């Protein structure tokens, strides 16, 4: 993990304000471990104590553990197995290809703002979240939490990370599917520059196990439009070669291949009944998120 960039803003008040009105509701009946707005898949079972978590403003004080308060002078809430809500697993691609940026922000800068905002909103509505930054393995992790007080930890992890390695998206998704015990939501934020068939197999694995999957496909505007001029040297990331060429001569064939790539990913997500959102980093994140949440609320997906 690298040094924290003091100028990097991960949470934008306008984005939070616009998105907070819409919320991130679970489309499916998902399993979790805290009370909230989502329907529980469990019925007719005894309520059993599960664990404590730190009190945050807005919690029902009836569930305060006064014995713990008396011993430690700290406020903790009792949680029970029957209390359910969803857990969102944010999977952020931190591979070297995410370092590219033709403008002020790299793809990774943009993507970590996305992850920060989503984590904050999920915690704000009292759901639980885990945040994982990966390349060919998970490199940084905030384990599952429902405490808004952990948002500082998440911001620190996101701000300090520096992408440097190759990616293996499919293996990360398969490993996640094997380790998640309860159904939840998996949010993948990636440029998807990996073996697309294997990525879709990983998504299929998660869907087969009953998880809801959201894919935010993040690309730089120059990657989308390829509107570069003059003679340009392309430096391949993640082990790719260098190439000196004139982009204008390649633009037509490049766009054909790029559009086909995007369409294959989109169609693969559609076949697996997971939501696909294409994100061009030249578009403000607050507009992208608000449009997505409004669409999700309207369609029920």
Mean pLDDT: 81
Described by strand count, sense and barrel closure, the largest sheet is: 6 strands, mixed
Strand order in the largest sheet: 5-4-3-6-7-10
Percent helix, as a range, is 25-40%
- Runs in which pLDDT lies below 50 for 5 or more consecutive residues are 26-36, 39-47
Number of helices: 9
- The radius of gyration is 21 Å
Strand tally: 10
Counting helices, strands and paired strands, the structural category is alpha/beta
Structure description:
The chain has 301 residues and is an alpha/beta fold. It has 9 helices and 10 strands. α3 (107-124) links the parallel β3 (87-93) and β4. α1 runs parallel beside α9 and α5 (169-179) runs parallel beside α6.
In short:
It contains 9 helices and 10 strands. With 301 residues, the chain is of the alpha/beta class. Strand 4 and strand 5 (138-145) form a beta hairpin.
What layout of secondary structure does this protein have?
Elements: H1 13-20, E1 49-54, H2 66-72, E2 76-80, E3 87-93, H3 107-124, E4 128-134, E5 138-145, H4 151-160, H5 169-179, E6 185-190, H6 196-208, E7 212-219, H7 221-225, E8 232-235, E9 242-245, H8 247-271, E10 275-280, H9 285-299
Parallel strand pairs: 3-4, 3-6, 6-7, 7-10
Antiparallel strand pairs: 1-2, 4-5, 8-9
Helix pairs in contact: 1-9, 3-4, 5-6
